[in-house]
Amino acid sequence: MTPSSYQQPTARGYYGEFGGAFIPEMLYPNVEELRTSYLDILADPDFQLDLQHLLRDYVGRPTPLFEARRLSERYGARIFLKREDLCHTGAHKINNTVGQILLAQRLGKKRIIAETGAGQHGVATATVCALVGLPCVVYMGATDIERQSPNVARMRLLGAEVRAVTSGSQTLKDATNEAIRDWIANPVDTHYIIGSVVGPHPYPDLVARLQAVISAEMRAQLLEKTGSELPHFVVACVGGGSNAAGAFYHFLDEPSVRLIAVEAAGHGIASGHSAATSVLGTPGIIHGSRTLLMQDEHGQITEPYSLSAGLDYPGIGPLHAHLGASGRAEFIAITDEEALQAVSELSRLEGIIPALETAHALAALGQLGAGCDDVVVVNLSGRGDKDLETYLKNLDKLV
Amino acid sequence: MNNRIKNAFASKQNLLNVYFTAGYPRLPDTLPLAKALVEAGADILEIGMPFSDPLADGPVIQRSSSAALANGMNLPVLFEQLRELRAVVPETPVLLMGYLNPVLQFGVEAFLRQAAAVGVDGLILPDLPLDEYEERYHPLFQQYGLKAVFLVTPQTSEARIRRLDALSDAFLYLVSGPGTTGGTTLPDAEAQQQYFERIAALNLKNPRLIGFGIADKMGFDRACEHAEGAIIGSALIRALQDAEDAPATAARFVRGIKSPVARSV
Ligand SMILES: Cc1ncc(COP(=O)(O)O)c(C=O)c1O
């Protein structure tokens, strides 16, 4: 497939008017090293051999595309679930971390840092660090440490050091700040494995390329199951947007495929407690990227809110800002409550307990207007084990 | 035009550039602090425009920034406060330091116009990319007579240092070692020495000030051996944290750095 303007940012990392690398000089050598080497490394046959091997035998790819018959009946459309929840460690995040750890090795890095919100990216990073024997430090907001405690335990068991971040709202944005500060302090030997399609160029493109395996597999699986590589809808939740970028990637140039990006409305878009960046955000700079972000009139970044730690971020990746601005993707916002209902619905209809992030994508099914001949693929980005405590606390809203 | 930055470097040695956060510890402290610092001997002032997510700053300036924001500081308030700037500090170079996003929301040109109007001399915007500056903003900076100050780190390549030097006509800000502002871990002294010597040997057109992690007279004197002066920020902010009388505390702090007393061991 030839790269399009949607898939491929400009040389300086712009998708339309969004992207770029707005970084202090202290980060410049690190980011520049990555920028000048990532495409060559990704294209290297040895790298690809190692990556394909790990994706198959370690991550467990290809993940199944499962036709959810009872869910289909409920919504009157032909619904498929792309089972990223069956990846090793329970979410799509590991597609990115296996790629980046191989990249870090080729760059000669000796130490890995990461940020995490829901803990899935932290676990996926700690996992690949254990696999290759590199020390790993994960920054995590104190609020998130509390609400995603099983993942904290997993990271520690895997040998990673989890550092609690107590600045700001003590969630994903603040963890990302702290990881960037660590990188500034350790400019030579450390690689920063960012967890989504955010941050300065080339990270959004690097992470999107590593997650693109999701939609590459979807096309082959859809052809086999429906006779066409192209569905009518692809639905994915968006925190920073990595699972959505991966699920959309090989459909970006297929205008017949409607791309549905689902954000967290928290208590509701107008409630003052929300993370629906595409609605509440305006252009600005966050974590080195020009994109949509939630900010006040003076350009101070405001605190987002979502019950879901993985969607509790005041920005979205520049690719998604561009997909929204150009109309290529449609955005839907789902409240905490709607997401919780989707958790119980999928659990009872299909025997799959989804992650709270993923449940936002599922909750959008009723709003698509899909007909009974329409093929809908929902990217089932992760499993719900990490959220059990939250689910138990909200049992009244689940039933 | 009167070039206060050039004049300062031409007429003085061992310049002390002091950073403080606008609107901290209290909202109206900005100008009284500027006045006290200059009277006590500060040679350049760097006024921090607080930002919610200061990526290049350590915990001390993170805290002063969020305190200043909670006090109600923002760019319109700051420019209002700075209307009296040149009545209070007539000749001292004044720089505004901050992150790009608040400036973008204010409007880059409006920001430059107001900064020039109140008598600001230059800007330090660490997350403004060099390419972007060169292509979009350099002519605007020139139009308003504002100087851009760029950071150089131990990892900055020679080619890039030369580009930064060519694009600036103020001074280069040498970051002393790896880390955010206020760092306390001493960098490898030998590596640091080599870094400073390497830069000195480049015969750059701009003078150099060394910053990050300089906290006291000893650190200031050491930095002055390798450059035209040094920048102190977090150490002053730390002193202001529990200050009853912020201007008096700031003045005492500067006199402690600039006093001719032989350095204590
Ligand atoms: C299961 C799952 N889905 C989605 C996300 C959101 O991230 P992204 O938007 O980058 O896919 C997370 C983040 O932690 C997650 O754990």
How does this structure look, described?
The complex is a heterodimer of chains A (399) and B (265). Chain A is an alpha/beta fold. Chain A folds into 2 domains: 16-55 and 93-206, Rossmann fold; 60-91 and 212-398, 3-Layer(aba) Sandwich (Rossmann fold), CATH 3.40.50. Helices cover 42% and strands 17% of the residues of chain A. Chain A has 17 helices and 14 strands. Chain A has a 6-stranded mixed β-sheet, sandwiched between helices. Chain A has a 4-stranded parallel β-sheet with strand order 7-6-5-8, sandwiched between helices. In chain A, helix 2 (45-59) packs antiparallel against helix 4, helix 4 packs parallel to helix 5 and helix 9 (203-211) packs across helix 11. The longest helix of chain A has 16 residues, at 28-43. Chain A starts with 13 loop residues before the first strand and ends with a helix. With 265 residues, chain B is an alpha/beta fold. Chain B has one domain (4-255): Alpha-Beta Barrel (TIM Barrel), CATH 3.20.20. Helix content of chain B is 47%, strand content 14%. Chain B has helices spanning 4-11, 30-40, 59-71, 75-81, 85-88, 100-106, 108-118, 130-143, 158-167, 189-200, 217-224, 234-240, 246-258, and strands spanning 15-21, 44-48, 94-97, 122-124, 147-148, 150-152, 172-175, 208-211, 229-232. Chain B has a 9-stranded parallel β-sheet. In chain B, helix 2 (30-40) runs parallel beside helix 13. Chain B is globular and about 45 Å long. The model of chain B has no long low-confidence stretch (mean pLDDT 94). The interface between A and B is large, with 33 and 39 residues. Bound molecules: pyridoxal-5'-phosphate. Pyridoxal-5'-phosphate (PLP) binds at residues 91, 117-118, 120-121, 196, 237-244, 310-311, 355, 357-358, 381-382 of chain A.
